[in-house]
From TrEMBL:
Membrane-protein topology: Multi-pass membrane protein
Protein name stated in the entry: Claudin
Family: Belongs to the claudin family.
Phylogenetic placement of the source organism: Eukaryota, Metazoa, Chordata, Craniata, Vertebrata
Transmembrane segments: 77-98, 118-140, 160-183
Source organism per UniProt: Austrofundulus limnaeus (Annual killifish)
Signal peptide: 1-23
Chief site of localization: other
Role played: Claudins function as major constituents of the tight junction complexes that regulate the permeability of epithelia.
Pfam name, any one: PMP22_Claudin
GO molecular function: structural molecule activity
Length: 223
């Protein structure tokens, strides 16, 4: 395993996990559009949890969504995927930190540490996929309503929270890919020590015989 690539992958994974934590409570997942409005008295912006409105005087009013079951299906799915993304990111960070060569956790068994780091890379990839699906699904509904001429409700535009989510997903996928590419289950320098070595003729030569210890048997003892 390359320590530099491991450190880079761990940094990318931590940064992506941190950005997921910033994107989830961000209030600007979608913001009401000014397109086609001559006079705008208030601006509405929402995320997965609350809906807020601000008027021309700068007063903000926010309210939580009243019912979980009353929400649209894509909002419920995006909530679940974002929470799963945070959980996967935690497991990925633990696997990356334990599996790194510079970490003393797990001893000096680099084969085992490489496997743990590879599992951490898989969790980072799962984190990135969950974030990418949740954010893209949410954005797809925004664009579908925006370009629908028959939609009579409030039309929204993509907010900054979605861009943070997309950036987090890309970083998580890059970090997981780096961990999987850097981890080798067995490096060329690791050699397995055997107690006995098989000679060319097929006989087994013991370590005591090769270390110079005299044998009790003569040459004619073997047939």
């Amino acid at each position: 395993m390359s320590p530099i690539v491991e450190a880079l992958a761990c940094f990318l994974g931590f940064l992506s996990w941190l950005m997921v934590g910033l994107a989830l409570p961000n209030r600007y997942w979608r913001e009401s559009t000014f397109d086609g409005n001559v006079i705008t008295t208030s601006t509405v912006y929402e995320n997965l949890w609350i809906s807020c409105a601000t008027d021309s005087t700068g007063i903000h009013n926010c309210r939580d969504f009243p019912s979980l079951l009353g929400l649209n299906g894509y909002i419920q799915a995006s909530r679940a995927l974002m929470i799963a993304s945070i959980v996967f990111g935690v497991f990925g960070l633990v696997g990356a930190l334990v599996g790194m060569q510079c970490s003393k956790i797990g001893g000096k068994n680099y084969v085992l540490k490489g496997r743990i780091a590879a599992v951490g890379g898989v969790f980072f990839i799962l984190q990135g996929l969950c974030t990418m699906i949740a954010v893209s699904w949410y954005a797809a509904n925004i664009t579908q309503q925006f370009f629908d001429q028959l939609y009579a409700g409030t039309k929204y535009e993509i907010g900054q929270g979605l861009y943070i989510g997309w950036s987090s997903a890309v970083l998580a996928l890059c970090g997981g890919a780096c961990l999987l590419c850097a981890c080798q289950f067995k490096s060329p320098n690791e050699k397995i020590q055997y107690a006995h070595q098989r000679t060319i003729r097929g006989h087994i030569r013991s370590i005591t015989a090769t270390s110079g210890t005299p044998s009790n048997y003569g040459r004619n003892a073997y047939v």
